[in-house]
Amino acid sequence: MGFDVDDVITQGTTDELARLVVGDGTWHTSGVPRLKVPRVRMADGPHGLRVELGGSLGESAPATCFPPAVGLASSWNPALLRRVGEALGREATAAGVDVVLGPGVNIKRSPLCGRNFEYFSEDPLLAGALASALVYGLQSTGVGACVKHFAANNQETDRMRVDVQVSERALREIYLPAFEKVVTATQPWMVMCSYNRLNGPLVSEDPWLLTDVLRGEWDYTGVVVSDWGAVVNRVESLIAGLDLEMPHVLGNSDREVAEAVEAGQLSRELVELSAARVLQLTHRVADAVRDDQPVDEAAHHELARQAAHESMVLLANDGVLPLAPRAKVALVGEFARTPRFQGGGSSKVNATRVERLVDTLAARRQVRFAPGFLLSGEPDDALVEDAVAAAEASDVVVLCLGLPDADETEGLDRTHLRLPEVQRALLVELAQTGTPIVAILSNGAAVEVADWADDCNALVEGWLGGQAGALALADVLVGDVEPSGRLAETIPVRLFDLPSSLMFPGEPGRVVYGEGVFVGYRGLDATDRPVAFPFGFGLGYTTMRYDDLAVKVTGTPASGALRVSVQVRVTNTGERAGCEVVQVYVGNAPASVPRPPRELRAFSKVRLEPGESRTVTLPLDARAFSFWSEAHDRWVVESGVFTIEAGPNSRDLPLSQELRLDVPALRVPLHAESTIDEWRSDDQAWAALLERLPEGASFELPPEVLAVVGGQPLRRFVKFPDMPLSAADVDAVLAAYGG
Ligand code: BGC
To answer: Phi, psi (5° rounding) for residue 84?
Structure first.
């Protein structure tokens, strides 16, 4: 490589270093031509490469469109994600792209978020594990990943300005762990900060998030880049830890940075720190060993097909699937001819080819196609009549329903979870024919199905399947491939069952995450709501049995070395091969803070031949039992009886075993506003306080009095008349024992 990082830092002028911390145009870093520092090239992902050929969000070069994250996540298969990452890396290499801007690991706080199709799950463990595998695969090819949008970017409404008001506990337990996992497991070359504000400051100017947490706690060494246009004040953002502003036209922020250094408002060392990170990235790019064979488009199309096999989730099936070999099929729905296979916005890929169910199913079964409805949503009686006639003349209806393109795009959130009215009306008409119906959904996030699912004999949640989705669908419908996807997000009965729904997308400029950690199944379980299909759910064409749960514990939470090994035996009891995603949840013990009834803590996908049994071992550590204690500013396990639960989904956990953990109670630091109850639970401080009582005086409070005053701050209570202690006594003890 033609440059040395330290030399560039010493020899670079302030202007040159200031240029390094801003981009050059939309997709490049700036480089330093005088010192032979080249530019680094970035391009959008995450489920396919988007190398723009012209203007912003305009035409892009053809690339393989893999299933978006909503689909990939339903695979629950890290090995698959890794292969997709490798393929992305090969395509990036061929296109001369150094860093792919993805994956996005934001949590699906509400199914309404317009970018949920780009995100993995409502559960941080699943999102983190799958995204890490994709990043690992991508970076193994010598191309960088850029995990985004860090953090708490969970809606599109007012995304560039909204202040997300969320407790630190919810951040630590729900919104940050997927980032933490990707960062600590894979050191992505870049992390993209989000547009929004977080509890006040813009994320792009938030030193707590960008420096204290990301670098201080997670040891991140790569480059923090702004989301495109996230920077308001370049100097403030640099101070907070944002290394690279994108996009940028040279002569703007670079000048501000250089002038701030000249004026003594910003230290040159700080600019050097970020410039050095950009230089290290540039080095990484130059040193990467890459396989620059031409891309095998057909092989990537085939991988997209395999990924789509595992992306779809069979939600219901009365036996109509797989389709009988001689079945005459009425294939109804415009989506069979005009597939929806990805969402809108910066992730939109110009697919190398696109499969259509009208072709892929017609190659396997006798098919009569009827569009049934207009994608525009206008009622059209002639289309309905034609579809009904097709249904009447067929053995089975395969009905392609879904959301129109405009409903799911970056920049907009949905306002409800219903399918378009014309599609529901069509289903009613078709159901009256009596011909069995297999409904297939194309959508990037949950829709309400409870009102109409019973009219269908089978229901396949196809999500957005990428360019080969229709090939994969045909494979699954005819039974050449077993359905093996599982829901990475709950399908609620109604939107308003979700605790977040009253607080999404908030008010102008502000959204309060009042539901705290009760996101997705955590909230639905806590409020005991029925769901249409639970988190983790999915059927195959075979049946599975779970038995022999064994839980082995070594170490203790106090020593920090708690290890719990969970073993489960799964048996394929059916006549076809199939996959099972073994899921382990920890049912939380009652704690000093409200905790979700259960949380996913481990999973493993296995494939079993008919009659085959496999013992699966899943490890848990102390974090699986912990919550984030705001009082102690760290992860805490409290004593209690936890339940280890294993099974096929969050609401079907046939195996369970209790596990008692004993942990020495942590002292809650006392302060001026600590209550009488809190003081009494601190033996030492309470004894020290009582020692200050005047000779013969007592401070005993009978139970009925304590019931009333136990929650009052002691320091205020002792100011009442006739108290044997004073505020000065409280202060004296606080000086010795306070937090
Ligand atoms: C999106 C990012 C994307 C960037 C570049 C932004 O609007 O939020 O996800 O990578 O544009 O296109």
So the answer is: -65, -40
Rounded Cα distance, 26 and 38, in Å: 16
Whether this model's pTM surpasses 0.85:
yes
Q: List, for residues 479-493, the tens digit of each pLDDT value.
A: 999 999 999 999 999
Residue 674 pLDDT level (bands cut at 50, 70, 90): very high
List, as one string, the DSSP characters of 439-488: EEEE-SS----TTTGGG-SEEEE-----TTHHHHHHHHHHTSS------S
pLDDT for residue 204: 98
Which carries the bigger pLDDT value, residue 656 or residue 2? 656
Give the ligand 1 atom nearest the CA of 194.
8
Please, which residues bridge with residue 731 across strands?
A: none
Residue 478's alpha-carbon distances to 312, 361, 372, 482, in angstroms, are 14, 8, 22, 10
Q: How far apart are CA 346 and CA 224, in angstroms?
A: 19
Q: With contact defined as beta carbons under 8 Å apart, do 511 and 165 qualify?
A: yes
How many Å apart are CA 472 and CA 305, to the nearest integer? 5
- Picking from 549, 570, 557, the residue whose alpha carbon sits closest to that of residue 612 is 570
CA of 601 to the centre of ligand 1 (A): 31
User: How high is the pLDDT of residue 560?
Assistant: 73
Question: Are 369 and 349 within 8 A, CB to CB?
Answer: no
Using N-to-C axis directions, what is the helix angle for 268-287 and 253-262, rounded to 10°?
140
User: How many whole angstroms from its chain centre is CA 43?
Assistant: 21
- Ligand 1 binding pocket mutation candidate from 56, 57, 101 (most atoms within 8 A of CB): 101
The tokens for 571 are 């048996």
Which of 27-45 are b and which e, b meaning 16 or more Cβ less than 10 Å from the residue's Cβ?
A: bbbbbbeebebbbbbbbbb
| pLDDT tens digits, 61-111 | 999 999 999 999 999 999 999 999 999 999 999 999 999 999 999 999 999
Cα separation, 105 vs 220, whole angstroms: 17
**Given the CA of residue 44, which atom of ligand 1 is nearest to it?**
10
Q: Which residues line ligand 1 (CB under 6 A)?
A: 44, 101, 148, 227-228, 346
Q: What is the mean pLDDT of residues 356-384?
A: 98
Amino acid at 262: E
Element holding 725 (H helix, E strand): none
CB 186 within 8 A of CB 136: yes
CA of 104 to the centre of ligand 1 (A): 10
Q: How far is 285 from 289, CA to CA, in rounded Å?
A: 9
Residue located nearest, by CA, to atom 9 of ligand 1: 346
Closest CA to 234 of 269, 197, 271, 264: 271
Q: Which two tokens stand for residue 158?
A: 């007012």
Query: Nearest to residue 40, comparing CAs of 83, 84, 92?
Result: 92
Mean pLDDT score, 228-252 = 97
Give 536-557 pLDDT, tens digit per residue. Answer: 999 999 999 999 999 999 998 8
Question: Which residues carry out catalysis?
Answer: 227
**Phi/psi of residue 459, each to 5°?**
-140, 120
Atom of ligand 1 at shortest distance to CA of 104? 9
Mean pLDDT score of the chain, rounded to an integer?
A: 97
Q: Which pLDDT score is estimated for 388?
A: 98
Q: How far apart are CA 126 and CA 133, in angstroms?
A: 11
Structure tokens at 548: 């022999």
| 13 Cα: distance to centroid of ligand 1 (angstroms) | 31
For 324-337, what is each residue's pLDDT tens digit? 999 999 999 999 99
* Alpha carbons 166 and 170: distance in angstroms, whole number: 7
The closest residue, in CA terms, to atom 4 on ligand 1 is: 228
The closest residue, in CA terms, to atom 8 on ligand 1 is: 227
229 CA to middle of ligand 1, Å?
9
Ligand 1 center–CA 227 separation, angstroms: 6
Q: What is the pLDDT of residues 596-638, one digit of tens each?
A: 999 999 999 999 999 999 999 999 999 999 999 999 999 999 9
Q: Which of 565, 574, 568 is nearest to 546 (CA)?
A: 568
Nearest to 100 by CA among 111, 110, 87: 87
